[in-house]
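Following up on my earlier thread - several people asked me to post the actual chain instead of describing it. Fair enough. Here it is, all 303 residues.
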Amino acid sequence: MKFSLRALAALLVAVLAVAPVLAQDGAILSERDKVGYMLGQDVARAIGPGLPDLDLASFQQAVELVIAGGQPTLDAEEAKRLSEALMLNIGARKAGKPLVALDRAKAGTLAGANIGRGLVGFRNEFDMSMFMRGLRDGANPGAKPLLDQAQVDQVRTALSTRVAAAREAERKTQGEAALKQEQEFLAKNKLAKGVFTTPSGLQYMVLKQGDGVRPKPGQRVRVHYVGTLLDGSKFDSSIDRGEPAVFSLDQVIKGWTEGVGMMPVGARYRLWVPAALGYGDRAAGTIPPNSTLVFDVELLGVE
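Reply from S.P.:
Thanks for posting it. Predicted structure:
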């Protein structure tokens, strides 16, 4: 069962280096405490009326198991039945109707596994006991929260700042590594038999020559292609989709405009597109920043 955790993804980040704050009961909370408590409260709000059906001890065990790299022993069919029962009970509570019977321990395991998957990358960044305390307080309308709204807002703002900084640092690191990999690869690849390099830095190999016309700038072309990264992972394929792609040569990345523009109809080329002729230092879908793109392209026609 997948719960809608709207705020959760934005909150799962590195612990912030800000001064400790006092909880409303006077206790000093560490940053791990604050993050854990807030995450727990957010999860409680996201799960909402499904919480009474969960055994929280089983829930916590499942979260900890998944964070540690394990998986609960629930098969797909059992998980499906539990999910359906949970959804029925959520609707029944809202409508004031009788509830269906379910195994609360297994329901807790199912929910805990789902939540744990969202926390697995941040296993060292929040306190589990405070996460569970936040969950319990969030599920209890009469509970006095450990953090008042001003403190929660302060933590959220700091978390958002940290998220942006961490993402930018990761993007920069990935981009620098990708450029280094690209330089090393293209320097070696240009020496391979059958590989040509254009003044722009585009590299290509003729896999099959064609005898048709070559497209002119602005013309629409019909192609089959497969796009991969240098590690061989595929990010796009018209062949997998079962139909050729049709587009104008002035509406694609520079490497495609140049590479396909050299091809006569009927030809099949392999293009190695440097990041500067592709998506540059920005990510595009599953394509990381500064990626070198490899395309096998067959030009089927020109319109």
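The longest helix spans residues 149-189. That should answer part of your original question.
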